[in-house]
Amino acid sequence: MNAPLPCLEDNEYHAWERKASLPMNFSCVEAFSGAGGMSIGLERAGYDVRLAFDLDKHAVDTYKNGVTGNCMVANVSDISAEVILDCTDLEVGELTLFSGGPPCQGFSKQRRDAHIFDDPRNSLIKEYARLANDLKPMAFLLENVAIFGQHRGRLLLKEFGDVMSSYRLYPHFYNAADYGVAQTRQRFVLVGIRNDVKTPFLKPLPTSVRWLTVGEVIGDLPEPPLDYTEHPLFYNHQRARVTQINIDRFSHVPQGGGWQDIPYRLRLPCHQNASTSSGGWPDVYGRLKWNSQCPTITGGFDSFTRGRYGHPLYDRPLTPREAARLQGFPDKIHFKGTRQDVRRQIGNAVPPPLAESIGIQIAKTINSDSEIHERIELLGGLQGTLDLTSAA
């Protein structure tokens, strides 16, 4: 394999880090915050994230060391709106944005006539709705509810809308590559705007003139140490332990290729008679393309057998640092915990550039509504002055 080409010094990878200039300092509380991907993006968009919480103590450690100290380990079912308001010095209805991505496990196999809030596996989204209704923020941002975008999504959205009747719902699919991430990650995000905010929410336009590539995002990173230790200059830049036979297999795979490029004698038994035309796990032992994008980063990104996560130039899987960059995380974030904990935090994260774009659009919606009200009040005052002048 050839050595990586140097990245352009002024490429778009760091462009998203320019903080949005908003006329108001909007407040935010985030539930299920994880390692802080969404919070990083929202802070870049100008929000003051006053409180975040998650049940994963390692994710909270990552958050507190890299984002802000306003994060705590907590079970959402144990938190009340009163506690949140006390911690943030806000009153009911004053919070600008309540964000979060509660896991939703009870959708795929539930009965067709069942209600989402009747299934105990959906208790987390139920708790999210409880807090949103009690806090009464101007807007909420709900991520990781992919079922809402599937065939039954319309009915489920209606049911969720009935529970969140004080809000207008705006469901959209987003491709992270459109918003400054070198990853074709499809995310379904539901935005709710409080009914007294009359301006509708519009899906933000793509911010990328062209999609970033894998090479542009990770190409300036040095190779991780051969002894499996963390690189001294880059947090979490540490190679995975891979057996020699798997390295030998992967060495035959070209960029964009997969297990089908491995010589028959080296293939796993399950691949010797498999066909990609009838399924056949096409991304297993997959090597990324230097000048293309990465598929969705999951918690299995450091294994050849879990997807297309092989480095485009070297015979190894991605490191956690490379995966974090492909998710849009800045290098200052040091992911805490075991390797499994780190993989989960990175794979479950909302790409910060995507969160930033959605956050800016929510802010524009609220700002626009405020400006309209100010103009109406101004016109009302002028009308009163004109009436008094006419009467005189």
Give a verbal description of the structure.
Helix 3 crosses helix 4 (123-135). The chain has a domain at 12-211 and 349-377: Vaccinia Virus protein VP39 (Rossmann fold, 3-Layer(aba) Sandwich). Helix content is 31%, strand content 11%. It has a seven-stranded mixed sheet with strand order 3-2-1-4-5-7-6, sandwiched between helices. The protein has 392 residues and is α/β, with parallel strands linked by helices. Mean pLDDT is 85; it is low at 1-23 and 388-392. Helix 4 (123-135) links the parallel strand 4 (97-100) and strand 5. The protein has helices at residues 37-44, 57-66, 81-88, 123-135, 153-163, 214-218, 244-250, 269-272, 320-326, 339-348, 352-391; strands at residues 27-31, 48-54, 71-73, 97-100, 139-143, 167-175, 186-194.
In DSSP terms, counting alpha (H) and pi (I) runs of 4 or more, how many helices?
Answer: 11
> What is the CATH superfamily label of the domain at 12-211 and 349-377?
Vaccinia Virus protein VP39
Global outline: globular
Distance between the termini: 88 Å
Strand % is 5-15%
CATH fold-level label of the domain at 12-211 and 349-377: Rossmann fold
CA radius of gyration: 24 Å
Mean pLDDT: 85
Helical coverage, percent range: 25-40%
Order of helices and strands: EHEHEHEHEHEEHHHHHH
Please summarize the sheet with the most strands: 7 strands, mixed
Poorly predicted parts: 1-23, 388-392
Q: How would you sum up this structure in a few lines?
A:
By secondary structure, the chain is α/β, with parallel strands linked by helices. The chain has eleven helices and seven strands. Strand 1, helix 1 (37-44) and strand 2 form a beta-alpha-beta unit.
